[in-house]
Specification:
With 301 residues, this protein is an alpha+beta fold. It has helices at residues 2-10, 16-24, 26-39, 48-61, 65-94, 237-247, 271-279, and strands at residues 97-100, 107-110, 116-119, 124-127, 136-147, 154-157, 161-165, 169-175, 178-185, 187-192, 195-200, 203-208, 211-216, 229-236, 251-253, 261-267, 284-289, 292-297. The strands form 3 sheets. Strands 1, 2, 3, 4, 5, 6, 7, 8, 9, 10, 11, 12 and 13 form a 13-stranded mixed sheet that branches. A 3-stranded mixed sheet has the order 15-18-17, with no helix packed on it. Helix 3 packs across helix 5. Strand 8 (169-175) and strand 9 form a beta hairpin. It has 3 domains: 2-94, no CATH class; 97-216, Jelly Rolls; 228-297, 3-Layer(bab) Sandwich (Phage tail protein beta-alpha-beta fold).
Length: 301
């Protein structure tokens, strides 16, 4: 969030509140001072021969080696200071943007072309601002919903493969143990290994046991997580627990041999309801001790 505010400030798009927040933060306050100082720099006319002659005349006036050394050190110090400031400003102006959400946090990001990305909890989005209109590429770790403005090819790169569109709405779920792409408007193209698959609106492409499955999803305008709810269809309990731990600041302990499949949903705004929604239909009991949840298999009669 702080990096996004800094990016907006460098591009002259930051609000007064965001600017005040950057000045109040020790990590970014120095950056603002450097950028403001360099903004007033002007480049004077430079006549190499005349400047060289003037420098020689000044040095000849002082024959003392001590004085000459002091003059050279002074000139070198000024040059070094200017170089440091220039390099720092260039770095800040051209660096990429990275946005990371924490557990139970969601974030909405507006890209330079006005495309909008909704980032789910425990996810990271990276992109380069420079030349964005010509090369709309970003990297995703986690889950995000994209509402893409029409234009040049828009590419989302994940550890599984890439998703390409021109302008549409789609959701990408790219976690270490699961990958899926759901199209809500238009058409998306997914590259998985050597395979290219076009996914039309109303369809979801998912990796299952190393292979691809394409199936219809519910006719809705956005994924359920954007409505503060996670929904699943015949999904392993291990993956359900991973998602619970992303949406709530908890750690869930379960028997290692517990193998169950779950179809249903849980809310993001009530832990008790979420746990009951998942575990009761599966015949499981649980206890809560602070941030720790322990699951127990129901005793057999």
């Amino acid at each position: 969030m702080l990096k996004e505010k800094l990016h907006n400030w460098l591009n002259g798009e930051a609000s007064k509140a965001d600017t005040d927040a950057l000045r109040a933060n020790p990590e970014t306050a120095s950056y603002l001072k450097i950028a403001e100082a360099t903004a007033e720099f002007t480049v004077p006319e430079w006549h190499a021969d005349a400047q060289y002659d003037q420098l020689q005349q000044r040095l000849l006036k002082d024959t003392s080696s001590t004085s000459t050394g002091r003059n050279l050190r002074w000139l070198g110090g000024i040059a070094a200071a200017i170089a440091v400031v220039a390099v720092a400003y260039f770095f800040l102006a051209t660096q990429g943007t990275e946005i990371t959400t924490r557990i139970a946090q969601k974030e909405s990001i507006t890209l330079p072309d006005q495309s909008v990305v909704a980032l789910n909890a425990a996810s990271t989005l990276r992109y380069d601002n420079k030349g964005w209109e010509e090369d709309r590429q970003l990297t995703l770790e986690g889950e995000a919903f994209f509402d893409v403005e029409k234009g040049k090819t828009f590419t989302v790169t994940t550890s599984y493969g890439t998703v390409e569109v021109l302008g549409t709405e789609f959701n990408v779920h790219s976690r270490p143990s699961q990958f899926s792409v759901s199209c809500y408007e238009g058409l998306v193209r997914v590259r998985y290994g050597d395979t290219l698959v076009d996914v039309a609106a109303g369809n979801t492409l998912r990796v299952v046991s190393g292979g691809l499955q394409n199936f219809r999803h519910a006719t809705v305008s956005t994924p359920s997580w954007m409505q503060e709810e996670s929904s699943f269809e015949n999904t392993s309990l291990a993956l359900i627990i991973e998602e619970l731990e992303r949406q709530y600041p908890i750690t869930i302990n379960r028997p290692s041999n517990l193998q169950k499949q779950f179809t249903g949903s849980f809310p993001h705004n009530d832990l008790e309801v979420a746990l009951r929604s998942v575990f009761e239909p599966l015949g499981l009991t649980y206890t809560i001790d602070g941030e720790y949840v322990t699951i127990y298999a129901a005793a057999e009669d």
